[in-house]
Each structure stands twice: as C-alpha cells, then as structure tokens.
Structure prediction request, 422 residues.
Amino acid sequence: MNLLASGPLCGTVAIPGDKSLSHRALMLNGFASGRARIRGLLASEDVAATARCMTALGVGITKEDDGVIVEGRGGALLEPPDVLDCGNSGTTIRLLTGLLSGQDLLAVLTGDPSLRRRPMARISRPLREMGARIDGREEGGRAPLTIRGGALVNRTFRPEHASAQVKTALLLAGLQGAGTQTIIEPGQSRDHTERMLAAMGVVLRREGLAVSLDGGQRLSACDVDVPGDISSAAFFLVAASILPGSELRLTGVGLNPTRSGILDVLWRMGADITIEEAREVCGEPVGDLIVRSAALCGTIIGGAEIPRLIDELPILAVAAAAASGQTTVSDAAELRVKESDRIATTVAMLASFGAAIFPKPDGFVIDGGVALQPGTVHPRGDHRIAMAGAVAGLLVGCELADPGCMAVSFPGFLSTLSALQG
Ligand code: S3P
Prediction:
C-alpha cells in the first residue's frame, strides 16, 4: 500500500495493552488456582496464539463486556489434543515450554516459518538439565519442539543472554521443580514475570541480577489491569518527535523501568516528552506520556540499556535518521534472532529511504540528517519493521508491503495513525 507524507500528528491515543503482560496474565492465571478477570488484554495475533494454546491445555477463557475471564487449572494442565500453534510468538513458545516441562503430559509446539527459524536451545538445554524431556529439530534447537513433562530438579542457571523469555521459562519450570531455582542474568531483563508471580502469592528473592524461587509454590489467580505497551507507544513517541508541530497524549502507558529505556534515549536525543498521571496499576508503574515535536540529535546506545529497549531499536533507528549527527547502536546482536534479523531488516528499510545506515555485527551506525526520499518497506513479516517503516513514511511517503503483519502486536496501527493526522 502507498502511504503519503504527513503533516503534524495531534490528539490522544489510548495505547493498546502490553503484549508481554498479556501473555503472562493468560498463562499464569491459566496455571493458577481460581478465577481472574483481565482488563485491557491486548487483542492481537500473538496474544490470541497464547489464548488458543491455553484453551487447548484445558484453561477456560471467556470474553465478557468487562474483560476476559480465565478459569485457572490449579497447577494441572490437560494434555493438548493436537499440536500447539504458537504462530509468530516467541514469548508463547518459550514460556509454554518452561511451563509444560513440569506437567505430566506430551505436547508438541510449533509456529510460523519465522518462529521455526528462531533459537530454542537457550530454553531446551537448561530445561533438559532439570530433567525435562524436550526434543525438536536440530536436537531441540528449533521448533517444532516436543515436550514430555515430568519431575524436575531445580538448579542455578547463568543464561548467556539477558532474556526475559529464558528467565521466565526457567522460573515457570522452577515453580514445579524440587529445591531452589536461581537464574543469574548477564543483564537485567524485563521483570514482569517476577512482579506478577509475587502478586499471585509466590515468594521470590532478588539479589542484584539473581532471582530465585523455591519449587512447590502454588499460584493464586489475580485480576490484572494490563497497561498500555510502551513498545507500541514508541512508534507515536518517535512519529510526534520528528513531525514538526505535533503534540500527542499517549494514555495509560506501562513505565516499568526494565522497559522504559526508550524514554532515556529519546530524552538524551533532545525529545520533548513528559510524564503525567504517574500511578501504579497491579504492581506495574503506569503514566500518560505527552510528546511534542523537537529537534533530535544523535546518541550512543549500548550496554545495560539494550535489554531495556531491545524491541524499540528499529523505531529508534528512524528517530536517528531524522536526527542531526551520528547514532551508534552496539551490544544488540540479539536483534539478529527476533521476528526477523532486525539488523538486516532495519538497515534495508532505512536504506530504501536513502538514509545513511551501516550494519555492524551487533547493531548499526546511522549518520543522521541526510535528506530522505520516498522508501519501499518490505517488513519480511516483522510487525515492528512494518510500523517503523510506516513512521519513516510519514516524513516523505513510502510503499509498504504486507501491512497486515502489524496485527501481531498492533491491529489498527495505521488507522490510529491516520486519525491523528487531522
Ligand atoms: C519478551 C522478551 C524479549 C522481547 C520480546 C518479549 C517477553 O525477548 O524482545 O518481544 O515478553 O518476555 P527476549 O527474552 O528474547 O529478550
């Protein structure tokens, strides 16, 4: 489809529910004892995949006017009658693999071609060390994965990457194992699981980058109000920053410090963003973000900041292309194994607009301020590349292939954007 260059963006956006929290609210409540109401659950393809899988595992999930009701199975899921299709969702397959490792059942988990290309040894290897019987293509390194769950023994793990999906898989297995499970990360990944487990009555201990829990603890269902996804808000933060004359209010955005690295980077680049109505909802910090256009300058992004903004790097690259000066992203090799190789797809997307962007093994360098020309965006099925490309297109116009892939995290993104164009 063809997207035209845009004038300023003005208005208010109620940011759709956080994807990470939506997956967890369904999975943890489905596993817990009792009944929970989830308000603000993200209605997207990834979350629908989790809901389908949990339903196949015997969890009751019903839609009501005021949210979604989850009837938990009290720690005992049912053997699914068929293969579980996790679609495009890495969070679904990795978290479920951890959860099912401790269950007395056989499950086969698969997904779309992108998900079947993504690395799974990072979960299958440690879960096997706990006693889970997991197999899959490339010796358990790629989906489809088969899991024959059973008795698990807890241990101490030091994952190679700061990954909330790996950490969560090991915590969910650890809840069902014997002894103490400890995960010591190389950097702090998002801590939504820890917060939600604590709200469900689980005792966790955190010491620096180590998190531990004792096996055998029961989860009590807990109502969740899902805040807006800062990873979705990110597209509007950058769009309003780079389109002169813009002013947006993004309401109810989750501001968990393990997720809010994009704010620190945009502030460093000179963005005009303020937080209003700061509050706490279900153990998660939330606020409204007011963003006005501003002249941005380049910056250096790397180190411990990367896990706090890993999903926002494609849209930050668009901000960097519109900024003056150079931006360097390092320590982000994990981008290579996301829904697409996001170093390659971000570089190809911005290069099509004539931006000066150069790949590195672990990131990219962008020389900002180069005059852009209308681009051609091939998202390669990656929702975040499609949305980042659409935001770059607001500056000069673009031809966007496969806009439908945005539904993985943000159905209606383009109509929300056009409603702000006055
Ligand atoms: C997620 C963790 C991150 C993130 C993904 C969602 C989660 O992945 O990129 O979009 O919900 O736990 P990693 O755990 O692989 O870093």
